Amino acid sequence: MTSGSFARCRGIIADVTGIGMPSNLQSALISFSSLFVWRYIGGFGPAAMAGVGVAQRLDKFVSMPCKSFGLTITTFVSQNTGAGNYARARRGIQSCLLLGLGVTWGLGFLVYWFAVPCVSLFNSDPQVVEVGAAMMRTIVPLYFFLSIREVYLGVLRGYGNTRMPMLLSLIGTVGLRQVFLAVSMRLRPGLFNIYICCPLAWGTTAAMIAAYYLLTRRRYEPDGQNV
């Protein structure tokens, strides 16, 4: 391998690492922070732990479409901006946001109305079912925050910006959630604090990421047209 080829390969590796590492670090830190959430859940007994665990399984199933749309828009935006087709990238962002909201809400409200039988598929204990159903009925109406967050995270990554989305996600999903639980559990302990902490983090992160995108989009869209 010539010195020029080696330099090019090193540059490509540096670019890939610079884009991929923040996303991996974000996922690792968010997963790690969940351990501290379970510390609070454990104080409510085994039924609460089982009920929240079932609700989280259902949540992963329902939220999968909007996360998939977030991954899709990353590829779509990067391909179209790379080709200089900024108008098509903007139309894709709008379509992906609407699809993410529609599919996630549609699937979510099926689980909302049938929360009890859905939780009962995993555990038939009445206390577990009560906790799991209550959590799903709390978070499902707020899934639009999650959809907005995932799509705009994908958009910024498609533009090659991974560091700021990582930072904003950590502030909203890790920092705010931990602060909220630490304060709310001291002032008024209750399982509702566990239920609402994730939607609160979604909403805060979605607002910060959407605002950041709107403030910086001209940097990524040189033709100056609005989305």
Summarize this entry quickly:
This protein is 86% helix and 0% strand.
Tell me the domain tally: 1
State the secondary-structure class. mainly alpha
Mean pLDDT: 83
How many β-strand runs?
A: 0
Report the sheet-strand fraction. Answer: under 5%
One letter per element, helices H and strands E, the order comes to HHHHHHHH
Helix tally? Answer: 8
Question: Secondary-structure blueprint of this entry?
Answer:
Blueprint: H1 3-41, H2 46-82, H3 86-113, H4 115-120, H5 126-139, H6 143-158, H7 163-187, H8 191-220
Helix pairs in contact: 1-7, 2-3, 2-5, 2-6, 3-6, 5-8, 6-8, 7-8
Describe this protein's structure.
With 227 residues, the chain is mostly helical. The longest helix has 39 residues, at 3-41. It has helices spanning 3-41, 46-82, 86-113, 115-120, 126-139, 143-158, 163-187, 191-220. It has one domain (6-220). Helix content is 86%, strand content 0%. The protein is globular. The protein is built from eight helices and no strands. The model has no long low-confidence stretch (mean pLDDT 83).
What key phrases describe this protein's structure?
227 residues; 8 helices; mainly alpha
